[in-house]
Amino acid sequence: MLFHVRMDVRIPHDLPSDAAAEIIAREKAYAQELQRSGKWRHIWRIAGQYANYSVFDVRDNAELHEVLSGLPLFKLMDIEVTPLLRHPSAIREDDS
């Protein structure tokens, strides 16, 4: 299943910079691992914000929840999920 996900990161101002840097590094490694596996199909930064739009390709809602809750920044994010379905007027054969 494909899901469109918006993630807004809210790092607390009182979080020590070394702790923030460590969480951000773990987040990057995890995100890149998910991209290599094909589960995190697309990621786009939203200009001027610490936020992104992403497309995930996972088995179901439960797997998406597992993937998102595994993000090191998960507890510091506002996340909005929209399930995607193939449009009947689409001419492409694949879901990319």
Comma- or semicolon-separated keywords:
4-stranded antiparallel β-sheet; elongated; alpha+beta; single chain
Distance between the termini: 12 Å
Number of DSSP E strands: 4
The 3D shape can be described as: elongated
Strand content: 25-35%
Work out the helix count.
2
Order of helices and strands: EHEEHE
Structural class: alpha+beta
Q: What does the main sheet amount to?
A: 4 strands, antiparallel
Strand order of the largest sheet: 2-3-1-4
Q: pLDDT under 50 segments (min length 5)?
A: none
Describe the protein:
Helices cover 31% and strands 30% of the residues. The chain is an alpha+beta fold and 96 residues long. Strands 2-3-1-4 form a 4-stranded antiparallel sheet. A hairpin with a 5-residue loop joins strand 2 and strand 3. The longest helix is centred in the first third of the chain and has 21 residues, at 17-37. The mean pLDDT is 95.
